Amino acid sequence: MLEILEKKIEGNTLNGLSLAFIGDAVYDLIIRTVVVGRGNTSANKLHKQTIEYVKAPAQARLIEALMEELTEEEAGIYRRGRNAKRDSMGRYSRNSY
User: Fold this and answer.
1) Which of 26, 23, 24, 3 shows the shortest CA–CA distance to 11?
2) Which of 36, 52, 80, 96 is deepest in the core (most CB within 10 A)?
3) Which of 21, 28, 65, 22 has its CA nearest to residue 50?
4) Which residues are catalytic?
C-alpha cells in the first residue's frame, strides 16, 4: 500500500470515473476537516453539516463559482470527471448538476 501512496499520479492519466472517485473523496475529506474544525459536536451533527456541502447540488454551485479561476488543464480534468459514464445513476438526478 505504501508504494501506491508514494507514487505520483497525474490527473490526465486517469479515466473519468477514477477522477470523479478520487475527487469526491478528497473533497469530502476537506469538508469534514473544516466542519470538525468549527467545533466538536456529535457525529450525527457533523454528518448533517458535511452533507450540506458534499451533496451534488452544493458541489455544482461551488464549481460554477470557481470555473473562471481554473486553468484550461484544471477545467479539462474537471469536465472529464463530471462527464464520466456511470453504470447507475446517483441519488441526485443529472438536473442537479
Assistant:
1) 23
2) 80
3) 28
4) 24
